[in-house]
Amino acid sequence: MAIITVQRPKLAWHEKAFISTLFKGLKITLSHALRTFLQIAGKKPKVTMEYPEQKWDDQLPDYYRGAPALVTDEHERERCVSCQLCEFICPPKAITITPGEIPSDDPWAKVEKRPKEFEIDMIRCIYCGMCEEVCPEQAIFLRKDYAITGLSRKEMVHDKKRLYEIGGQRVGLVNKWNELK
């Protein structure tokens, strides 16, 4: 095997002292400072959004996936049939469902079950949208919300009441309440 010797280039005095590199860095820094000054003077449009005062709501793309929430139908009935598909498909296992039965005196007792407890741990949720895709009754939707905050871990676990509160209503056919089914 042959040994190849690489000849290093000879550096000039200003390259050895990093003077040319220093001036290149200063040139970049001054160009950014000048660009910022022109933005402040009103000559160029702003690029930075000042978050708490300005929101991204208008500029969110259509494909944005936010946080999941449960929705009711137009008659304020819960859509979820507690099939637990969303719980099984959730990659980080952020969804926990405890099924419960509907009382026999209820007019909709033909429906087998409803969720007794439904919790989503928003700290674990990765906002993948698989729960929304797998739901046969369209009971879970991803809302366009990116500011999900809490002061403790307990506040970040959304229970059934909270999920319905933030989810709202969706209009449309729900197989669970279909008279012909």
Automatic annotation (TrEMBL):
InterPro entries (UniProt xref): 4Fe4S_Fe-S-bd (IPR017896), 4Fe4S_Fe_S_CS (IPR017900), NADH_quinone_OxRdtase_chainI (IPR010226)
CC terms in the record's Gene Ontology section: plasma membrane
Enzyme class, spelled out: translocase
Single GO molecular function: iron ion binding
Enzyme Commission (EC) number: 7.1.1.-
Membrane disposition: Peripheral membrane protein
Keyword check for Amino-acid biosynthesis: no
Residue sites binding [4Fe-4S] cluster 2 per the record: 90, 125, 128, 131
Keywords noted in UniProt: 4Fe-4S, Cell membrane, Iron, Iron-sulfur, Membrane, Metal-binding, NAD, Quinone, Repeat, Translocase, Ubiquinone
Role this protein plays: NDH-1 shuttles electrons from NADH, via FMN and iron-sulfur (Fe-S) centers, to quinones in the respiratory chain. The immediate electron acceptor for the enzyme in this species is believed to be ubiquinone. Couples the redox reaction to proton translocation (for every two electrons transferred, four hydrogen ions are translocated across the cytoplasmic membrane), and thus conserves the redox energy in a proton gradient.
Protein's name in the database: NADH-quinone oxidoreductase subunit I
Organism: Brevifollis gellanilyticus
Chain's gene name: nuoI
